[in-house]
Amino acid sequence: MAGAAAVEKKLAEYKCDTNEAICLKLVRFPEDLEDDSTTFHPEYSHQSFGDDEVAFGYKGLQIQLFYTAGNLSTLFKVKYSSKVNEKFDCVEADDIEGKIREIIPAGFTCNTDDFISLLEKDANFKPFGTLLHTYTVHNEEAGDLTYQIHKADMTCPGFQEYHERLQTFLMWFIETASFIDTDDDRWDFFLLFEKYNKDGETLYATVGYMTVYNYYVYPDKTRPRVSQMLILPPFQGEGHGAQLLEAVHRFYCNLPKVQDITAEDPSESYVKLRDYVLVKLCQSLTSFAADKLHLGFSAEMAAEAQEKLKINKKHARRVYEILRLKATDMSDEEKAKAYRLEVKKRLFGPYRKNQRELTKMRKCLRPEELVSHMGQMDTQVQHEELEKSYQDLVADYRRTIERLATQA
């Protein structure tokens, strides 16, 4: 038994955290290859390495996935200091290369010199599709940096292969990511690039992207639905997500056939980003003027937001609540109470539905079944949950208002 325990302990030394082992880079210059400060790591690797996000069979494992900054030409290498089957018989190490090959498309290189040759060709890379928007961001070290947002589709030469490389990042940074069917021509692709200088030439680096699916709405409209959105980690926290989402909204606002714009299973961070962008867009609308907010959410607000900005009623209501909070003196007890009741009235909708269901249950359930369901709908618990929902919502709204103030 002691011997088995010792072997098990030794084998445990051959387990590696794949979120640490996977090393990603966006390479602009050859020296970036040896610069650890340009390396970033996944947030998730469970889709390749299981829920534990562990690779077995290696010590000092390093899975290198390095991309040229523009065209995303890929260098793939697996390094380790020791492998389990070199020390133990009848024990197999995980097939690292096989797992990664399931994600990255063919065409990568495993040779550093070949990768540097591909890096030199990045000077010829140009963004795909149509330029929608250009903006600058001030960087203390580099000065003013210029960014471009382009709209592309699968008819753009070379874009399909580029997209196959780009979408691999989804697996490392979106928990429930999956690859899309690019044969369907209802997909729109929005790409974000940084312009930078190298040896006197202007080059382009990939910053992030968004995919949008155009659903049919009877009888003659479409409903663009955001499916995936990712700003690559080296560029996060610089406001690029808001720039991309706003540019996409403005693009669809100019299309008469668009009903409204929505999102597929939005994450909490995406909802907060959308709140910021939609409030920024709506605050200049006549129906959302400060002197009209205290009158409550109106049909005019819903209609103007939908007509001019393709915002649906549910999202317009959130915008109204944020702008009303911004315009309300919450130190005034009466005004604060009016705001609180207005928001809670909307939040109470699901609880009111529970009460109607309970009334129906009283007519058809046996007493013991009714007691069970009543326990789930305890009034006191409902009130506590409602208050918590309200406080959490207001906290989120305040963060949106603070961000608006800093960006003004």
TrEMBL record:
**Coarse class of the protein's main subcellular location:** mitochondrion
Enzyme class, first EC level, given as a word: transferase
On whether Iron is a keyword of this UniProt record, the answer is: no
Keyword list (alphabetical) reads: Acetylation, Acyltransferase, Mitochondrion, Nucleus, Phosphoprotein, Transferase
Q: What is this protein called?
A: Histone acetyltransferase type B catalytic subunit
The record's GO molecular-function terms, alphabetically, read: histone acetyltransferase activity; histone binding
- Compartment annotation: Mitochondrion; Nucleus matrix
Provide GO CC annotations from the record: chromosome, telomeric region; mitochondrion; nuclear matrix
Q: Location of site Interaction with histone H4 N-terminus? A: W187
